[in-house]
Design a protein that fits this description.
Layout lengths: L4 H31 L9 H7 L2 H34 L2 H12 L6 H12 L4 H8 L13 H25 L3 H9 L4 H12 L1 H16 L2 H8 L6 H11 L3 H29 L5
Helix pairs in contact: 1-13, 3-4, 3-7, 3-10, 5-7, 5-11, 7-10, 7-11, 8-9, 10-13, 11-12, 12-13
Length: 278
């Protein structure tokens, strides 16, 4: 089959970008995966050894739980924030948008340190509660799963807001008014009209927040500590402290597999809510 020069031009234009993605993303991930394949006859030896420890399974479950809770809370808060911004106009819209994405203007380490100041034993929250006489001694707020989730929600809610603003603005207000005029309650309008229409934004925002939470090393280290170890901190421990590169490779593959599974589940849920979204 003869390909005319004009037909080959689009392929030539995307070729450099494709090669860069393959070289910097696909090949390193593939090399990490092949490095975890055991000898012939027992290809899954490293995985079997890794999953034989209850501690590793506990870390995986905690990491997925924290990422899921963070995603739900971030999408919940992001939806209300995006709805307010989408309805605003002029200068107010710009001010609200800047306030919503302000956390993105500082690094993850700075934001995590800010939460350490708030939640520390002698931090702002404990000092306030002590001064008001609500508590008699400082509460252990830092290095808990709650503090980790708070830091991650603060970190990734702006991504949920940015993912939802566009789809909320694209909703035709007349559709909402028509459903309301036909007697639908606000809950029914949201469930049957609004939710299917914002499904693409929920999918994008949910995947961004989940994958970011699953790989948030700095926040996990500063706010979770050793008591609430998650997968990225465990990977750092195996690679940089124990120098167990086999276990580190297995953790990396597990994180990639969890991410792909979440993307597939998200796409399935988005199609169920809105067939045109998938």
């Amino acid at each position: 089959m003869n390909i005319r020069p004009g037909q080959a031009l689009p392929y030539l234009l995307v070729l450099p970008g494709t090669l860069i993605v393959l070289g910097l993303l696909v090949l390193p991930v593939a090399d990490t995966f092949t490095g975890t394949i055991g000898p012939e006859g027992d290809r899954l030896a490293l995985y079997r050894q890794f999953f034989s420890y209850d501690y590793n399974i506990t870390v995986i479950v905690r990491s997925v739980r924290v990422a899921l809770v963070t995603s739900v809370l971030s999408l919940f808060l992001g939806y209300f924030a995006a709805s307010v911004i989408a309805r605003a106009s002029g200068l107010w819209r710009q001010i609200l948008l800047v306030c919503a994405v302000f956390p993105l203007l500082t690094g993850a380490i700075v934001r995590s340190f800010a939460w350490m100041i708030v939640l520390g034993r002698n931090g702002l929250l404990n000092s306030t509660l002590l001064s008001l006489g609500i508590i008699n001694e400082p509460m252990p707020l830092l290095f808990t799963e709650v503090s980790l989730i708070l830091g991650l929600v603060y970190l990734f809610t702006p991504l949920a807001v940015l993912s939802l603003i566009g789809v909320i603005e694209a909703i035709d207000r007349s559709i909402i008014d028509a459903a309301t005029s036909l007697g639908a309650s606000p809950r029914a309008v949201f469930r049957q009209v609004t939710l299917p229409l914002i499904a693409p934004g929920l999918l994008v925002g949910g995947v961004l927040v989940f994958t970011g939470s699953l790989a948030a090393f700095a926040t996990g280290r500063l706010l979770g500590g050793e008591a609430e170890t998650i997968l990225p901190t465990l990977l750092n421990e195996k690679a940089m402290i124990s120098f167990d590169w086999d276990a580190a490779g297995v953790i990396a593959v597990v994180m990639v597999a969890i991410t792909f599974a979440v993307v597939l589940v998200g796409q399935f849920a988005a199609r169920r809510l809105n067939p045109s979204a998938g």
